[in-house]
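We modelled the chain as a single entity of 271 amino acids. Its sequence is:
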Amino acid sequence: MPEHVVRNSEEIQALDWGPARERASAHDFLLCKYCAVQIVRGETSGKSILDKMTRLVEAAGFFSIYFENKFVAIKIHFGEPGNLAYIRPNYAARVAQLIRARGGSPFLTDSNTLYKGKRSNAVDHLRSASENGFNFLTTGCDVIIADGLRGTEHREIPIAMKHCKTAKIGSAIADADIVVSMNHFKGQEMTGFGGALKNLGMGSGAVGGKLEMHSESKPQVKREQCVGCGSCWKNCMQNAIRRSMTRPSCPISASRPHSIRLPSTGPVVTS
């Protein structure tokens, strides 16, 4: 076990890591300033990566959580079929095992997507999860789509924030006693990157909640950068960008007016 396990940044700053540094070379020693876990190669050699993960979650205080007779939602991204950018099911299986060993009832969960794809309804979502290895046989726990068949099953929780007065959270997540976030690091167009906050904040939202959170993200065409190629309307999966009825031969041109029609709102926005 690590010699030092701490719980807050003040303790981290106060630690003296000198003895560990004396025992290990630069290549053998690793100090994570966020969870203050000391790992020396001699202490972890011969251990599987799942065993090492168990040590990390223990050092982070995971075992101090009271799981007995609690429904535990393991919030995770199941990945789109054909995509490898998701956490491997082996890790989810180990976390579920640790929870069950402490009397908890874990389940893997995620909410349906706002965009059209293989995770926009519960039937396709469950099939996608299974294709990527997230099922009872591989993880030892059930998979539940948090906001139901069509993304309409949610709990409206008051938060009194500026842009959203309530949060529409998928019922399975809102009704769980404990939520454990298992998230991967990813790029994101608007924020630069996403992790735990996006996994919980956006990922726990039902379809209606995701719509509210995206309501300020309206499409715009920058005329000074438009070259009139028409790629945007050809590749828009939602058909939100339409041919201008007055310019059928040049749907988008840097030198002439063009239109964007938003089917959900009706009006034509002209730039």
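As a brief sanity check on the tokenised model: The radius of gyration is 24 Å. Residues 1-64 form one domain.
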